Amino acid sequence: IYSYGKFSRIIDFGNVNGEDSIAISYSSASDRDYDLNAVILLSNNITCHFFSLIKLNLDIWYHVGFSVTSSKASLYLNGILLLQKDNECQFNPYILRNISYIGKSLWSAD
Q1: Model confidence, pTM
Q2: In a 3-state reduction of DSSP, which class is residue 65?
Q3: CA distances (Å), 76 to each of 16, 46, 66, 71, 102, in order?
Q4: Would you say 105 and 7 are in contact if contact means Cβ atoms under 8 Å apart?
C-alpha cells in the first residue's frame, strides 16, 4: 500500500456487470480510519461485508488472501486467518469470474 484512499482496491474478482464479485480493499468510511475489508456482491443486489478492523502500514508488502466455499468465507493476512464467518450470503463459489485485478478496481468510479 503506497497511500491511503477510500476503497483502495487490493484484489477484485468479478464479471462485467459486477455481480457475484469479490472485492478486497483497504477502505474507510471516513478519511482517517482505514481497515482491511472484503465485500461480496451478489446478483440479487445483496452485499455482504467482512470487516477485519486491521490497520496496515504504508510501504510494506502484505500477503492478502480470501477463500469462499459453500459454507464459509475466510480472510487471511500473511497466512494468518483474520476472519472467518458462515457464508450467510449463500455466495456461489463455483461461478467463473472472468475479470480479475490486483491493485485495480473492477469499477471505473473507484
Answers
A1: 0.73
A2: strand
A3: 26, 23, 6, 17, 16
A4: yes
Say whether 85 sits in a helix, a strand or coil: strand
Which residue(s) pair with 40 in the sheet? 22, 48
Given phi > 0 = left and psi -120 to 50 = alpha, else beta, which region is 98? alpha
Q: How far apart are CA 72 and CA 16, in angstroms?
A: 25
Q: Which amino acid is at 12?
A: D
For residues 93 and 42, the answer to whether their CB atoms sit within 8 Å is no
Note the pLDDT tens digit of each residue in 27-53: 765 555 667 777 776 666 677 777 777
Beta strand spans in the chain (E): 8-14, 21-27, 35-41, 47-51, 64-68, 72-77, 80-86, 99-102
Residue 35 and residue 28 in contact, taking contact as beta carbons nearer than 8 Å: yes
